[in-house]
Amino acid sequence: MMGVDMTGLKRWLGLSLVSMCVLLTLAACGTRSINRAPVEERVTRAGDPAGVPALVKQPQGFENAGKPGYYAVKPGDTLTRVALENGQSPRDIARWSNVEDPNRIEVGQVLRVLPPVSQEVVVQAVTKPVVSAGSLTQPASSATSTTLSAASVPVTANNKPSLPTDAEINWIWPANGVVLAGFDEVKNKGLDIAGAAGDPVLAAAEGRVVYVGAGLRGYGNLIILKHNNVYLTAYAHNQTLLVKEDQSVLKGQKIAEMGNSDADRVKLHFEVRRQGKPVDPAKYLPAK
Q: Second label for 31, Cα 20 to 30 Å away, from 48, 159, 206, 246?
């Protein structure tokens, strides 16, 4: 009987057992993961929240886009510019549009740039007045039955006098200097009037201050007056501003001092806006 090398047999059996363990381990890896990071599976079945795409946040007022009396904010817009271009007060547009921070409007946001449509307010007595036979019918008083239209009743904030109508405006020059640059609808939307630093800037007509500040690029320290529901005037590049928003001013009242803020020289840039559109001030001002 041949002798058996017991040492070699043990070595062979040991290697075989190791090989079998390796094969069993590899087979197990195919059925389960070992130390693998968990992977979130997104199921796209109907009704599964994981399969519903996230809703895109729409800009404020998007449902009014394209409607008359509304304006969609474009890149570079500010509330002040939108107000000037539409002949309104920035404060009014912010209020009509529920803008919480007038310094932050976003592209695509839709602003109301015309006043809300006035609705008739009906004031009626709870009971009708008793009229005896033979008595004369008295006209209804405001405490009984009256139909009021907000469009026909001049109501102003804080019971202030209503602004003059178009026909009642008598314009004056806002400064005494010579005209440096005339009106151009594209390049210069008003008149540039020369002067020295500190020269008075006057209100061209009676009105109400609707903007005071430097938030409109290219205008420097700016004042905007509203004269009625048609006309605004703008006074730019001032050195000193002497009025506050919502203040009433008289024609010829000093509202600022001339300067060169955001300008290459001392001057007054003066604009007349008719329903937000720039028009030639020289056609409204008296001849010098």
A: 48
Among 262, 284, 288, residue whose Cα is nearest residue 273: 284
Element (H, E) at 22: helix 6-29
User: Rounded CA gap, 180 and 222, in Å?
Assistant: 19
Listed residues 112, 129, 149: the one ending a domain: 112
Q: Could you say which of 86, 112, 138 is where a domain stops?
A: 112
Looking at the structure of the chain, the number of domains it has is 2
Q: Tell the burial category of 51 from Cβ atoms under 10 Å away from its Cβ (0-12, 13-18, 19+).
A: exposed
- Structure pTM? 0.63
**pLDDT for residue 138:** 38
Q: Which two tokens stand for residue 74?
A: 């474009």
d(CA 269, CA 199): 13
Q: What's the rounded Cα separation, in Å, for the pair 65 and 110? A: 6
**209: helix, strand or coil:** strand
Domain range for 238 is 166-283
